[in-house]
Every structure is written in structure tokens, then in C-alpha cells.
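PROTEIN SPECIFICATION:
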Amino acid sequence: MNPTITAFKSSPDRGKGLARDMRVRWALEEVGQAYDVRLVTFAEMREPAHLALHPFGQIPTYEDGDLVLFESGAILFHIAERHAGLLPADANARARAVTWMFAALSTVEPPIVERSMATIVERDKSWYEERLPVLEGRVRDRLGQLSNRLGDADWLDGAFSAGDLMMVSVMQRLAGSGLVEEYPNLAAYIARAEARPAYRRAFDAQYAVFVAASGG
């Protein structure tokens, strides 16, 4: 029996692959694990049936037999632990890959999300023009540090891992901002990850949901 994940029936990103179910889809594709998807509306996400899976009423969730998980990082870690392909066999390299997962979620993502939310909900506020450079400065601080660490390597620590998958997923939220392009090695890093066959399969699957929802 395949695990089941939840995803937006009508994603607010209009098929760009920025919703967090994309991280889980990509991980499952990387390890070759078939999966089912249950699409939910925003109204259904507030109903008791979904809240029993995700107490904060969000997506994605992951169900595999008696196991129910929420939070994309926890789901990705579980997938990487159970299947070969996303975590190195060497114990120290494995620990470093997990560290990069945490770094993506705890250190790099927060300023990116803060900037993204400001561009959506604060654009008409009187303070927006002054606040945006401050937020973008915080993003640049993190991108600069990451760029220095990556250098001319293909991936963060040896072979592609769950750490790279999570880091790229986080930085994709900056698409169209021009910020990543200020760091050519990071732009190339993201492009390299997006060229992976597993990523393309995951992207195409989530984009098909958008097309169906929009009547295309």
C-alpha cells in the first residue's frame, strides 16, 4: 500500500511548485517510492478530519498505515531514513546531511518567508518601501554565507542529499526576486537540482493538479 500525502486542490502559487507538498513529492520521487495524493480545499483543511492529521490545518500530511506525520521537514526526514538515496551511508556524512536540513528550515527559510509575506500582505502599507530593503538585507546575509560555503561544489556535502533537497526548496521561494541571481553559484546550484529527473517528475505531477483545477 502506498503512502498518501495531502496537497492543495487549488494551490495559491498557481502551479509554481512552491507549496510544501512539493518537497515531499520530490523526496518520494528521489527514492523511487510510489505515493498517492489526496487533494484538499482550504475549507477542508479546517475540518476535523484534516485537523486530526495536521493540528495546524496545513499541508502536507503523510499517512502510511498507522503512521501519520505532518511538517514537511519531519516527513522528508522520515522518507530519507526509510529509503536509500537521500542520506549517506557513512554516519558522519549522514549527520551532516541532517544538519543541512535543519539549517535550511531554521536558518535560511525564516528571513525568506518573512520577505515573501511582506511582499504579499504589506505592499500597500506606508512602511513597506522602508521595510523591504531591511528584509532583503537579511536574506542576502544568509545567501552570502551559503554561497561562501558552497563555493564551486555541486552539492553542500559530497553527493546530493536530503539537505540539498530542502535547501533548494527553501530558496525557490525567491524566484523572480533577483536575489539568488546575485550569487551565481547558488543560481547554478538550484538549476542543477531542478534538472534532476526526480524533481521534474514531482513538478509535473503538482503542475497537473493546477492545470486540472484551473480547467486547463
About this structure: The chain is about 55% helix and 10% strand. The mean pLDDT is 95. The longest helix spans residues 91-121. Residues 14 and 54 are 23 Å apart (CA to CA).
